[in-house]
Amino acid sequence: MKGCMGCIVFTSSTILFLKPLAEWYISASQNFLHKVAMDIISQLQEQVNLIAHLAFNTIGTLQRDAPPNRLSPNYPEPPAHPTEEGTNFSEQPKLMSSTLVKAAKQFDALVAALPISESGEEAQLKRITELQAENDAIGQELQKQLEAAEKELNQVQELFSQASDNCLNLKKPDDN
């Protein structure tokens, strides 16, 4: 390998070291993808909370910064709205509305990422009925196993009681 600058030479010990690392990386990647797929509902909930927060703040800011208007010609002119020097209030609603739109688009993207049901409502109801029947059958089997285990426990307790009684009867009294 002379003259091979920058070449990587793998030895058997290097491969033995890298194999578990590669397996861990693949496993971690698969777990991450599984969590991402399973966590879309949580992400949707967080996004709804963010949209509500942004909407609340946007409306509050618009109310706070809006110039006062005369309600009726019968009322006097409202006092001038105090403004700070150098503050540009016209940009803030644009920025807040664009942030709100981005959050709504992110919500739409998350909704689009939800798995689509291949079957209609009738097929889903049929599947639910099948799963409930399977659950009932497994529940009955578990109940039978529980009853058998309780019966066996009672037998063991009875045998233990008999064995302890026999041990007490076999014990010789101490002659003091």
UniProtKB/TrEMBL annotation:
GO biological process, one term: regulation of transcription by RNA polymerase II
GO-annotated cellular components: mediator complex
Known role: Component of the Mediator complex, a coactivator involved in the regulated transcription of nearly all RNA polymerase II-dependent genes. Mediator functions as a bridge to convey information from gene-specific regulatory proteins to the basal RNA polymerase II transcription machinery. Mediator is recruited to promoters by direct interactions with regulatory proteins and serves as a scaffold for the assembly of a functional preinitiation complex with RNA polymerase II and the general transcription factors.
InterPro entries in the cross-refs: Med7/Med21-like (IPR037212), Mediator_Med21 (IPR021384)
Keyword Nucleus among UniProt keywords: yes
SUPFAM superfamilies for this protein: Mediator hinge subcomplex-like
Entry coiled-coil feature ranges: 128-166
GO function terms (MF aspect): transcription coregulator activity
Quaternary data: Component of the Mediator complex.
Keywords of this entry: Activator, Coiled coil, Nucleus, Transcription, Transcription regulation
Name of the protein in its database record: Mediator of RNA polymerase II transcription subunit 21
Region listing for Disordered, in residue ranges: 65-90
Main location: nucleus
Subcellular location: Nucleus
Organism listed in the record: Phaseolus coccineus
Family: Belongs to the Mediator complex subunit 21 family.
One Pfam family in the UniProt entry: Med21
Superkingdom, taxonomy of origin: Eukaryota
